[in-house]
Amino acid sequence: MRRFLCTLVALLVPLGALSAELPPALRNIIPTPQEIQPLEGTFRLVRDGQPTAQLVLPNDPPAKVQLAADYLNQRVKEMVGVTLPVVAATEFEKGAALFLGEAAGELVEVTWRGGLSPAQQEQEYVIVPLPDERGCVIRGRAPLGTLYAAMTLLATLQVEGKDLRFPSFSCHDWPDIPYRWLGGFPGFDSFEALIDWCMEHKISVISAPDYYRWRMDDAEVQLEHNRYARAHGVRLLNLLFGDLRLKNRRSYPDGETYVCLDEGAPSTRGFCVTNAALLKEKQRVLREFVEATEPGVLYIHFVDEDDIKDATEIWSNRCPDCR
Fold first, then answer.
1. Using CA of residue 267, residue 285, residue 195, residue 138, what is the dihedral sign?
2. Cβ–Cβ under 8 Å, residues 155 and 29
């Protein structure tokens, strides 16, 4: 068994040679895996409305491995109205089985891709079918990889009446781009639905709701969103962080105010870049924001106005210290 699985992993070939030959179900995988090999046979999760497979997890699985099983089962129920049995085991059990994560570790020897960054390694995974169409082993290099492997398998599921199946295939995948940003997205019924959709398509960074507007009055909601997204492998990007209520003062919080960019400048939103007290206050506010909301990604801006066409006029309107 071990030799068969190791040989099968070694035979995976680059997608470029196979893309035109992939069956439609495998073309549904987004993004396209680095290495994928269609094989003979079909594995059925459900036959005539009855489960023919089980989800096998390690004892006390990591959160993302548990999520992989739970979400896959949720979608199976949506498709055919049944759920798959879930068992915990450290050894492979005979019969139809669908392994997730470390429970399959003893069965698959994997040579992980060399030269990957830590972020790429976290997302690397393999999917290896077992002989005689008895199931497949899903294994990530890390728990996030196992979650992404489950999303790959989910994309291949096909409903035929009361049956649910997927074509047999082998897969070894890792991202070329560790963080894949979706800058805009269509409407969803809820924030959770958006994150679930991103997880299914392995989108790892999206703009946070109201990301152009920094505020602390809804820090609890932001914290909840950030934690939910992170648990599903998604980072919320807070863009253009900055508190526009801050003024140029000689000291904070109540020191004398002064003008750096005067009223004649293209923008009055500029901050005095030589004001050490202001920079210290901005650092304090930023630290408070991060501790309260736990953002996934920060794009720190609003140090100053950034429209290059106005650079000369902005410069001439700065205070003497800045110039």
1. positive
2. yes
Contacts 24+ apart (CB under 8 A), 173-177: 173/33, 173/34, 173/35, 173/36, 173/124, 173/125, 173/126, 173/148, 173/149, 174/34, 174/113, 174/116, 174/120, 174/121, 174/123, 174/124, 174/125, 175/31, 175/119, 175/120, 175/123, 175/202, 176/34
Would you say 172 and 146 are in contact if contact means Cβ atoms under 8 Å apart? Answer: no
DSSP helix/strand/coil, 166: strand
The DSSP 8-state label assigned to residue 307 in this structure reads -
* Dihedral sign computed on CA atoms, order 63, 75, 192, 177: positive
Give strand pairing partners of 138: 100, 127
- For 276, the enclosing helix (H) or strand (E) is helix 276-293
Phi first, then psi, for residue 310 (nearest 5°) are -100, 10
- Report the Cα–Cα distance between both ends of the chain, in Å, rounded: 73
Gap between the Cα atoms of 310 and 150, Å rounded: 50
Distances in whole angstroms, Cα of residue 282 to Cα of each of 6, 192, 215, 246, 288: 55, 32, 14, 8, 10
- pTM of the shown model: 0.82
DSSP H or E stretch at residue 200 = helix 191-200
Which of helix, strand or coil describes residue 93? coil
- The answer to whether the CB of 57 falls within 8 A of the CB of 87 is yes
Pairing, β 163-173 against β 86-88: unpaired
Compute the distance between CA of residue 99 and CA of residue 106 in angstroms, rounded to an integer: 11
Q: What is the pLDDT of residues 122-176, one digit of tens each?
A: 999 999 887 776 778 888 889 999 999 999 999 999 999 999 999 989 999 999 9
